[in-house]
Design a protein that fits this description.
Number of domains: 1
Strand content: 5-15%
Low-confidence stretches: 147-159
Largest sheet: 2 strands, antiparallel
Distance between the termini: 42 Å
Shape: globular
Helix content: 55-70%
Oligomer: single chain
CATH superfamily: Winged helix-like DNA-binding domain superfamily/Winged helix DNA-binding domain
Number of strands: 2
Length: about 160
């Protein structure tokens, strides 16, 4: 059993991290692409990581209501960053995936974010950074749980 004080310390530090990261992501996004909100970029990054998916799968994975995801996807489609793909054997359903421009924008934002992280961690020994990445991956895996992963329904792995 983990002591309550340890959990409280962790909760506080995670909350601080989330607030800082959310603020930094918003700034970086606006500086890099003023037409992209942090939420819209989150959908782009999701598609870049996981390939084509149905909007309902994205909503379920991200814990966002389907109408909200639909509005964000509409914006991304209008900007030419995603496109729709038909689902074989289901004329009403579609998948969404990145366009070449969408992939380019995600790569550029990831590059900017990577340089920011590198600057923040410049004084850390490489071993500490590696350990932090491994522990954060372990935490994220625990937080995601089986119900929070996108299914492979209709996805072909391509963006």
């Amino acid at each position: 059993m983990i002591p309550g004080e340890t959990i409280a310390d962790l909760e506080r530090e995670v909350a601080v991290f989330v607030r800082h990261e959310h603020a930094a992501s918003g700034r970086l996004g606006r500086e890099t692409y003023p037409d992209l909100t942090a939420a819209a970029y989150g959908l782009l990054a999701h598609l870049a990581d996981r390939g084509r998916h149905r909007p309902t799968e994205i909503a379920e994975h991200m814990g966002i209501a389907s109408p909200v995801v639909s509005r964000r996807l509409q914006l991304l489609e209008t900007l030419g960053l995603i496109e729709r793909f038909p689902v074989p054997n289901d004329a009403r359903a579609y998948l969404v995936g990145l366009t070449d421009e969408g992939r380019r924008r995600v790569a550029e934002v990831q590059d900017v974010r990577g340089r920011r992280l590198e600057a923040l961690l410049a004084s850390w020994p490489e071993h500490d950074v590696r350990t932090f990445a491994e522990l954060l991956a372990k935490f994220n895996g625990s937080a995601a749980g089986p119900a929070r992963h996108c299914g492979a329904t209709g996805g072909d792995g391509r963006g």
